[in-house]
Amino acid sequence: MADTPVTEAHARERRRDGENLAILGAQTLAWAACLWSASQAPQPWLSVVVALPFCLFMQGVFSMMHESFHGHGHRHARVNYLMGWWATTLFGASTTLIRINHMGHHVRNRTRAERVDLVEPDESRLVKTAAYYLAVFGGIWLAAFVGSVLLALLPAAVARRLIASQSADARRGDGANTYAAAFADFTLADMRRMRREVAASALVWLAVAWVLGFTWYGVLTLYAAFALSWSSLQWIYHVRTPLDVVEGA
Predict the structure, then answer these.
(1) What is the pLDDT of residues 51-60, one digit of tens each?
(2) Is 243 inside any structural domain?
(3) How far apart are CA 101 and CA 179, in angstroms?
(4) Mean pLDDT of 164-175
(5) Secondary structure class of 163 (helix, strand, coil)
(6) Domain range enclosing 227
(7) What are phi and psi for residue 57, nearest 5 degrees?
(8) Which residues are CB-contacts of 83 (< 8 A; sequence separation ≥ 6)?
(9) Residue in 186, 178, 183, 96 with CA at minimum distance from that of residue 135
(10) What's the rounded Cα separation, in Å, for the pair 24 and 60?
């Protein structure tokens, strides 16, 4: 009888692992089906019809990314990482970049680096307002996509200088935003991993796009809609909350 709770706990973990894999598989099929449908539209503007379901289930793809970042996608670490990488490939970014930024968010939430809804005395209201609306109207997703590509192409020497510079800023308490502040958390091993992730994701995208016949307008329409819908939700949970890392969550 003493072994029963452990056995039941293991059974629950196995079920959760299986459920998460099944969900990710269903999300992958939905991703491919939506992009194929949008690409097959007789007129480019008709691809907009697929945008709503695409945006809805892609929020779930981000949820799967989030679970993997916290080690809850699968109990086996390698499988958990691969699930996170695959979900982030569908999302359109490097899993290492998003994971490090997200984990840093838990540390920096409502600190100066993430007070997006407040204008500090030494900040420009115009610049801060413009940056806020650019971010929530798709800029957060775009920064993740462009940042993944650019950082993957960054020479090792430049990466070392960037990490050293941001680490020095972090020690001084600087850091204008969470993306810049997060560079203090990166290592050269993370940068190398990002290169591998982006290269592998690019190969997946090229292969699937070729097999299913994705078109530029189908992909652009759906991801523009998703960038807007996803970005608009990223700060809404924290705006006007207490300026405290825990209480502001």
Answers:
(1) 999 999 999 9
(2) no
(3) 7
(4) 55
(5) helix
(6) 4-233
(7) -80, -20
(8) 20, 21, 24, 64, 68, 73, 74
(9) 178
(10) 9
**Count of structural domains within the chain:** 1
Task: Enter the pTM of the model.
Answer: 0.87
Please indicate, yes or no, if residue 170 is contained in any of the structural domains: yes
Report if residue 241 sits inside a domain.
Answer: no
Q: Which amino acid is at 40?
A: Q
The rounded distance, in Å, linking the Cα atoms of 174 and 183 is: 12
**Residue 177 domain-assigned?**
yes
First and final C-alpha spacing in the chain? 41
Contact 122, 59 (CB under 8 A): no
**Measured distance CA(80)–CA(73) in Å, rounded:** 5
Q: What is the DSSP string of 46-94?
A: GGGGGHHHHHHHHHHHHHHHHHHHTT-S-SSHHHHHHHHHHHHHHHTS-
Residue with token string 């502040």: 181
Identify whether the C-beta of residue 234 lies closer than 8 Å to the C-beta of residue 136: yes
Residue type, 176: A
Task: Indicate the residue type of 201.
Answer: S
Tokens 């090792």 belong to residue: 156
Q: Running DSSP on this structure, what letter comes out for residue 134?
A: H
Length of the chain: 249
> Cα separation of 184 and 10, whole Å?
38
What does the pLDDT look like over 205-220, one tens digit per residue? 999 999 999 999 999 9
Number of CB atoms found within 10 A of residue 27's CB: 19
Place of tokens 């993740």: 144
The predicted model gives 210-239 an average pLDDT of 93
The tens digit of pLDDT for each residue in 91-136 reads 999 999 999 988 888 888 888 878 888 888 888 999 989 989 999 9
CA atoms within 13 A on the CB side of 73: 28
